[in-house]
Amino acid sequence: MAELHPVDEDLAQVRESVRALCAKFPGEYWRALDRERAYPKDFVAALTEAGFLAALIPEEYGGSGLTTAAAAAIMEEIHAAGCNGAACHAQMYTMGTLLRHGSAAQKARWLPAIASGELRLQAFGVTEPTSGSDTLNLRTTAVREGDHYIINGQKIWTSRAEHSDLLLLLARTTPREAAASRTDGLSVFLVDMRLAQGTGISINPIRTMMNHATTQLFFDDLRVPAENLIGEEGKGFRYILSGMNAERILIAAECVGDAKWFIAKAAAYAKERVVFGRPIGQNQGVQFPIARAYAQMRAAELMVREAAALYQAGRDCGAEANLAKLLAADASWAAADTCLQTHGGFGFAEEFDVERKFRETRLYQTAPISTNLILSYLAEHVLGLPRSY
Ligand SMILES: Cc1cc2nc3c(=O)[nH]c(=O)nc-3n(C[C@H](O)[C@H](O)[C@H](O)COP(=O)(O)OP(=O)(O)OC[C@H]3O[C@@H](n4cnc5c(N)ncnc54)[C@H](O)[C@@H]3O)c2cc1C
């Protein structure tokens, strides 16, 4: 089969190092964790030690100062190798909010420890049970009291909270009715969960269809030092949006990696499985869905590249980040379905890893932003159609 990674020659070394690391974490490793819904501690430790999770942190803060395209290549390779970056991807992009909007003192205090792996910034608390996709309607409040903010409310789907020292939290500091505009009145905080556990924050794990370490958080008069407010009070929604573009680009890269894994696995099986006296891959009915999934993956890959380049250049990339996420999630889902179908009954057997990856990649039709919400964004902001919500 043709090489599935024909572009990005300058990133060949990064890709090769990630592949070498991932080779130490084969299907058996992920299957065992999946059964127990256990966190891939050793895998995350190996990525941290190799410096991959600090790819986007500038060298002056101890990171590797790589580009967004390099970070995307890292996440893509992890997924193309059959591993799962969901255990740690937030460590890469969540710190962007601190890097782009934090004060010099905050950056100097937190970024070197995040880069070295001494502190984990894996948790990102935006979604709430009652407001869901309607982020501006969130209800968690942060009220200033002297040199602290007092946080009350709850978050849902705060992934990796049990495996993170820090949480990037979005909360309302000005009531919606009193805010200067629809998007004002929300603020971002860096919460040190090591100090907070048992004193204002409680974490309830949620068991899901795939191994994702996600949780529900409850805040009960949690005291956060005012110095942990990122940027200006009330402007947090804007800061979070720019971080969300990075998140969409990197998760789109993961979906491209998943699609590559499913396509390679389906093509290999179609060549080797003989039924009716010939390989199943000799039938066009089996070939064509794999070929179509390949075409979809390549198109998505180009959009990820374009979005990453725009983000890197500091240019507006809202449309491209959303397009990349939409196309890549659709490509990985088409490839997953095709791979399962190509494997016939064996696709459902745990030992082939297809059913596990199938469950894992399905998430990206819904999170971190659902397909419908991306289509609404494109309709309104790119095509100028009337706002639908
Ligand atoms: C495993 C997992 C991990 C996650 N990790 C995190 C995390 O770490 N941090 C975090 O903050 N969040 C996280 N999320 C939350 C995720 O971002 C949300 O689930 C997602 O944004 C969708 O929101 P919702 O679940 O509230 O769905 P809803 O907003 O309730 O939407 C339900 C359905 O209705 C559709 N819908 C809603 N409104 C409209 C509309 N106006 N037009 C058309 N369709 C519409 C949606 O597309 C969706 O299909 C995670 C979710 C999951 C499942």
Description:
The structure is a single chain. Helix content is 47%, strand content 14%. With 389 residues, the chain is of the alpha+beta class. A hairpin with a 2-residue loop joins strand 2 (141-145) and strand 3 (148-156). The chain is globular, with a radius of gyration of 21 Å. Bound molecules: flavin-adenine dinucleotide (FAD). Flavin-adenine dinucleotide (FAD) binds at residues 124-127, 132-133, 157-159, 208, 212, 214, 363, 366-370, 372-373, 376, 388-389. Residues 124-127, 132-133, 157-159, 208, 212, 214, 363, 366-370, 372-373, 376, 388-389 line the site of flavin-adenine dinucleotide.
Model regions low in confidence, pLDDT < 50 over at least 5 residues: none
Instruction: Give the strand order of the largest sheet, numbering strands 1, 2, ... along the chain.
Output: 1-4-5-8
Mean pLDDT: 96
How many β-strand runs?
A: 10
User: Describe the biggest sheet?
Assistant: 4 strands, mixed
Q: What distance lies between the first and last C-alpha atoms, to the nearest angstrom? A: 46 Å
**Proportion of beta-strand residues:** 5-15%
Give helix % range. Answer: 40-55%
Structural class: alpha+beta
**Helix and strand succession?**
HHHHHHHEEEEEHEEEHEEHHHH
> Rough shape?
globular
Bound molecules: flavin-adenine dinucleotide
Number of helices: 13
Radius of gyration: 21 Å
Short description:
By secondary structure, this protein is an alpha+beta fold. The protein is built from 13 helices and 10 strands.
